[in-house]
């Protein structure tokens, strides 16, 4: 599991990212912080791009636009899903949506562009 997702209570579940929200995910107004939603969208879009790549490739975010449509609330289980629109040799394009589990009404949507790069060889000295 990616350290960032684990630290922020985000779980990769097949092709979606889930987050059972708690008080530490909230902004000052009591809604789920936009950064949590953006991180979920980035993770799910990038993750789904990576699923379509050969093992020696990976993807990194080049740009992302997020549209916040309504507030998520503490206690909601948020589910982020993505559709890869185009997977090219050097760039990939994806769309993402965050909903509250059990609802089709989006909390946030996003579009993302991802650069496809060679997967670096892991450094044995780096620890997460």
TrEMBL record:
InterPro entries: HotDog_dom_sf, PAAI_dom, Thioestr_dom. GO terms for cellular component: cytosol. GO terms for molecular function: 1,4-dihydroxy-2-naphthoyl-CoA thioesterase activity. Residues 30-103 form the Thioesterase domain. Keywords: Hydrolase. Belongs to the thioesterase PaaI family. PANTHER family: 1,4-DIHYDROXY-2-NAPHTHOYL-COA THIOESTERASE 1 (PTHR43240). This is Thioesterase family protein. It comes from Luteococcus japonicus LSP_Lj1.
